[in-house]
Amino acid sequence: MALMQAAPTLNPAVDPGGVDGAPDAGKFVSVCTVEELQERGVITPVGLGQSVALFWHDGRPYAVDNRCPHMGFPLSKGFCKDAILTCYWHYARFDLRTGGAFDTWADDVRTFPVRTHDGRVWINLAAARTSEEERSHWTGRLQEALDQNIPLVQAKSILALLDVPRAWRRTCSPLAHPRSVKRRTRPSSPSRGGRRPTPLPGAPPPRPTTSRAACTAVKRSTTTRRNPLDGARRRGLGRIRDRFHDAFQCGRNTRG
What we know:
single chain, Rieske Iron-sulfur Protein, 4-stranded antiparallel β-sheet, monooxygenase activity, Rieske_2Fe-2S_sf, Rieske_2Fe-2S, Ferredoxin reductase, oxidoreductase activity, acting on paired donors, with incorporation or reduction of molecular oxygen
C-alpha cells in the first residue's frame, strides 16, 4: 500500500499549535513508519529516555506515557475502543486524545504531540507543563483526593508537589488543620525572656525536645504489652535496640 503523505498530518487533539512543514528536529523524534504502526496497532519505541506507548486509532497516531498513572502498569498491554484506552490491570480508563482519566482514583495520563511526515511518525518528547501548571494540577488533585478520601491520590499529589519548586509551602499551608497551626510572635525559649506557646484545644501533642523524652516516646511506641524482653516477640523494636538489650543481658550475666 503506497503512502501519499507529502505534508505532515497534525493531531489537533494533542498538537493544536503545529505549523506546516517538516517537524522541528530539535523537538520531534522519528520513532517508526506509519505502515508499521498501522499493522501492529501499538508500538513501544525504545531508546527515547521516556516510556512511550504509540497507538494507531481512527486513522491517527496517538502517543501517551506507557506507565499507567494509577500503579505503573504498561498501557501498551491494555486495549483501546472508541478512543478510550483501558489499562489491563485495574481497568482504569483514559481518553486517548487528551489523556483525561474517567476514574477519580487514577490520575490523567501524559500525552505527547504526534505528527506524520514522509511516511514516518514523529513524537515531541520535550512538551511538558510549566511549574505553575504542575502546581495548579496537583493542587486540584490533592483537594479532590481529600474531599473523596482517596489515600493513594493524596500521597501521589503530595509527592508531586514536593518536586515542584516553591509549591509545597504555597499549596499545603492553607490545607493544614487550623488548630495545629499557630504563629509565633515571641521567642519560645524562657531563657530569652519569652514564654512557651500555650497549646490550643485539639492540637496534637508537642514533639519531645530532649533526648530522654525522645527515647521515652520511642520506647512507649515500640514496647509490646506482653513481654518486651522476649526475643521472639521483639520484632518491632529494631536491630539497634536488640543490640543494646543483648549487651545489657551479657553485662548482667557477667556481674552475676
